[in-house]
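Quick entry between incubations.
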Amino acid sequence: MREEGVRPRQSGELTRRQFLTYALGGTGAFIGASILAPLVAFSLDPLRKTTGARFVEVGGVGDFHEDLPKQIHFKVTRTDGWIQGEATMTAWVIRKGRDILAMSPRCTHLGCQVNGTVDAAGNPVPSTDGEWWFHCPCHGGRYTKYGINDPATPPQRPLDVYEVKVDNGKVLLGPIHQRTV
Amino acid sequence: MFAKLYDWIDERLNVTPIWRDIADYDVPAHVNPANKMSAFVYCFGGLTFLIIVTQILSGMFLAMYYVPDIVNAYKSVDYITNDVLLGNIVRGMHFWGASLVIIMMFLHMLRVFFTGSYKAPRELNWIVGVLIFLVVMAFGFTGYLLPWDQKAYWATAVGTNIAATVPIIGPYIRTLLVGGDTLGALTLTRFFAIHVFFLPAFLMILLAAHFYMIRKQGISGPL
Ligand code: HEM
Ligand code: FES
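Done. Structure below.
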């Protein structure tokens, strides 16, 4: 027994038991973390993926008018995991002077499809509801032909718009954005 | 902070005796590698369990992307391997882990055999161990088909044909394994269900019995 080697413990000094608990706990935490870290990263992969929206030609500038929006459908290739598919997109397009405004039909309240004012054949006609031209079937949201919302109805921002490029008189639509103004 | 939270819970629910009962177990000198290095052979069972836990975890995460269908299975595994962040690592954990479980389990079994620990009164736990062994082999057999590549397909063709050589009932076993007479869509869904639902459930039950018996009977004495 090396009794003379034993000295009284200073306050705040680790006991043998505490030291072993920390050493063991630390090792265990390290092993656990090295197993869990790649698994967590693996499940967070969707945060890293972007929908690679490319621009798609949807017609000439002359196809669109200043008086009323026109509904168009176009196809985009969409990557859904390992599945490459075509998705049909819809836009309401109106000309405002030289600018092309291409609106998404997705209601900015809770995402239903808004209806434009059209006749039985599907051709745009002037509104019968004053300045309100788009109507949402879900909770009565309504918008002007430029997609500006009626603040007295549920939607609280204008219809989102496609990014538009005009190239040699051709109109190309890209990703959808919220309007900044 | 954790100590305070623990005390708060403990004051109300008195949880200390519950874990003390499980954790306060003096490791006998002859199984403690700190006394004699060769006692590390007693760690093999625990290491097998550690790897089974990582198999279950990595399997749960793989199932986020895997699809058990003959059109998509290969594509989804390919997607996991090449497109998902750290996908090759997670698939690799499950892939290499599958072989490692079997190796560790075998080493554990050899330890039990050479220390004579299977003798009375521990025969029942040896029997449970053999059942665990079978369940783990079944994990390997069913999991191997899931990537639905050439290796998977033909390995399963061979495996199910071996099962068919059992006298009298062999052909019936094969039909039940394959889910019909051709290896295809129904085989894949069966193997998937067995791999991720049935076998994990059996394994949990067997492991619970295994560990309960170890605590009840204590570890076997020194040679
Ligand atoms: C002792 C336990 C286990 C063993 C030995 C085992 C074995 C295997 C093997 C050999 C493969 C084929 C791997 C490949 O070739 O890439 C596989 C795939 C798979 N396993 Fe397991 N497995 C076990 C537990 C589990 C559990 C508990 C789950 C889920 C709850 C699971 C889910 C999966 C999935 C989704 C796949 C397909 C992904 C892939 O092929 O990479 N496994 N398993
Ligand atoms: S979703 Fe259009 S008004 Fe509610």
